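Please think about what follows:
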Amino acid sequence: RRNLDLSAMAQGLQYMMGRHDFRNLCKMNCEQVYNFERVLKSGKVVSPEKVYVLSIEDEEQPPSSMQEMDNDLLSIQTSSHDMCHIEIVGQAFLWHQIRCILSVLFYIGRKLEPPTLVQQLLDIQTNPAKPAYDMASETALVLQDCKFSQLTLGRTVRNLWDV
């Protein structure tokens, strides 16, 4: 985690909660995607000292809550080499959306940009073109879970034979 400002990163992530046009926070694939609007439902910035929990109550409204809690691991000696992680729960991510989001959050965490940069990037009227920035590395990226709550799979004998 080095000297990342996790509180600022959490604030930047909080601006992303809800329904937004993420065309400035993904790798553009205009041939296959025409709608860049996506929903981020919740997020966490977790370190040994603090946990920042972000959530929304209504995806159409601005973020409703950010809770800062002490982590249960406070008895452990902490250092600037401790690991931290970010969890993001959303719906139908765009191509490289998470890598772009993390890249911007790392700029914010290193204090190279303010958390309000996220608001500027999500304002498509003011910033219609994606700025140039490197994507975060995919090395530490982990897809933990996929849920399809509105998908019902038909289980018939024919379906099983076609697999």
Remarks:
- The mean pLDDT is 83.
